[in-house]
Design brief:
Chain A: It is found in: Cell membrane. The complex is a heterodimer of chains A (about 210) and B (about 120). With about 210 residues, chain A is mainly α. Chain A has a domain at about 65-200: Cytochrome c oxidase, subunit III, four-helix bundle (Four Helix Bundle (Hemerythrin (Met), subunit A)), CATH 1.20.120.80. Chain A has helices spanning about 1-10, 20-50, 60-65, 65-90, 95-125, 135-165, 175-205. The radius of gyration of chain A is 20 Å and the shape is elongated. The radius of gyration of chain B is 21 Å and the shape is flat. Chain B has two domains: about 20-80; about 85-115. The longest helix of chain B has about 35 residues, at about 15-50. Chain B starts with 16 loop residues before the first helix and ends in a 5-residue tail after the last helix. The chains are: A mainly alpha (about 210), B mainly alpha (about 120). Chains A and B meet through helix 1, helix 2, helix 4 and helix 7 of A and helix 1, helix 2 and helix 3 of B.
Chain lengths: ~210, ~120
């Protein structure tokens, strides 16, 4: 079998993340998980869309949102998706240093994004939007906050991998781990596309 | 056939010439799709930031742009365009299908607030 041969010889297979059965299972299982995550976010989006005009006299989206800030955050997250794509391309070349470097770049962009989000929430809070101010406030903070929690988790996950495997080189054990972490990161970006469109752009223009 | 398998041993060697060629092309494709996504995103922001397009048309327009961008992200960045991703496609589109129903239902339950 071609797969076992690759394992025996310790040579680089074209798709190291799927060269072992464990790797293939991780890959497929992770997509099942992402299918479920899609539904989780859908319920939060649905709630937000139903409640977004229920501001109960408090500030609403159009009073609070700043397009320039959201634009910068979007660009940062999009770019971090590209850096993680480069990480995987380097993984397939067995350029381990390149893989680690691009993953660190992804982490850095993720942290920058989180910094902006913390600033944003802080700013809204001081403009009178507490979590319990209105139905709009709770659904907004829950939706965007859940996304932010995913970003935080993704950053911690990638840092853990980078520290744990900083010296081992690329192996058939860690290749699927890096690959699934990158898939997760892209998923975060996919969710953000809907957040900037449905929450911010509709909040200002709709 | 040797039975000694150690998946934690570092992999030796580098990509074959054919793989290397594919990866080079892959990198190019990814950069192009990234630039295109930046373009789509900027268009969506400009649609809302300026009053060039009336909002009755602007809102479906930016929702369409978001849809295009998500499909690109899934198929290019997340490699769903590659071979052997039948189950992956099935799972994620099932998720999307249930998600669409969930969004519609919640909006109806809570009272539609115009989109």
């Amino acid at each position: 079998m071609a797969t076992n041969e690759a394992v025996d010889q310790h040579t680089l297979p074209p798709n190291p993340e799927k060269a072992t059965l464990e790797g293939r299972n991780k890959y497929l299982g992770f997509w099942f998980f992402l299918g479920g995550e899609t539904v989780l976010f859908a319920s939060l989006f649905g709630t937000y869309l139903g409640l977004r005009n229920s501001t109960a006299g408090g500030p609403g989206g159009a009073d609070l949102f700043h397009l320039d800030l959201v634009f910068i955050m979007t660009m940062i997250l999009l770019t971090s998706s590209l850096t993680s794509v480069f990480a995987i391309i380097n993984m397939r070349r067995n350029n381990y240093k390149g893989l680690l470097m691009w993953m660190w770049a992804t982490v850095l962009l993720g942290l920058t994004f989180l910094g902006f989000e913390v600033y944003e929430f802080y700013e809204y809070y001081h403009q009178g939007l507490g979590f319990t101010t209105s139905a709009f406030a709770s659904s907004f903070y829950t939706l965007v906050g859940t996304h932010g929690a995913h970003v935080t988790f993704g950053v911690l996950w990638i840092i853990t991998l980078l520290v744990r495997y900083r010296k081992t080189g690329l192996t058939l054990t860690n290749a699927p781990k890096f690959y699934t972490a990158v898939l997760y990161w892209h998923f975060i970006d996919v969710v953000w596309v809907f957040i900037f469109t449905v929450v911010y752009l509709l909040g200002i223009g709709g | 056939m040797s039975t000694h398998l150690d998946p934690s041993a570092p992999l030796q060697g580098s990509a074959s010439k054919a793989t290397e060629r594919k990866l080079k092309q892959e990198a190019r494709t990814q950069v192009v799709s990234y630039v295109f996504m930046i373009f789509i995103t900027s268009t969506a922001f400009l649609t809302i930031a300026t009053d060039i397009i009336p909002s009755s048309f602007g809102i479906p327009f930016i929702l369409l742009l978001a849809g295009v961008q998500v499909v690109m992200q899934l198929y290019f960045f997340m490699h769903m365009k590659d071979k052997g991703t039948g189950w992956v496609n099935a799972m994620i589109w099932s998720g999307m299908f249930v998600a669409a129903i969930t969004v519609a239902t919640l909006m109806l339950l809570l009272g539609i607030n115009k989109y």
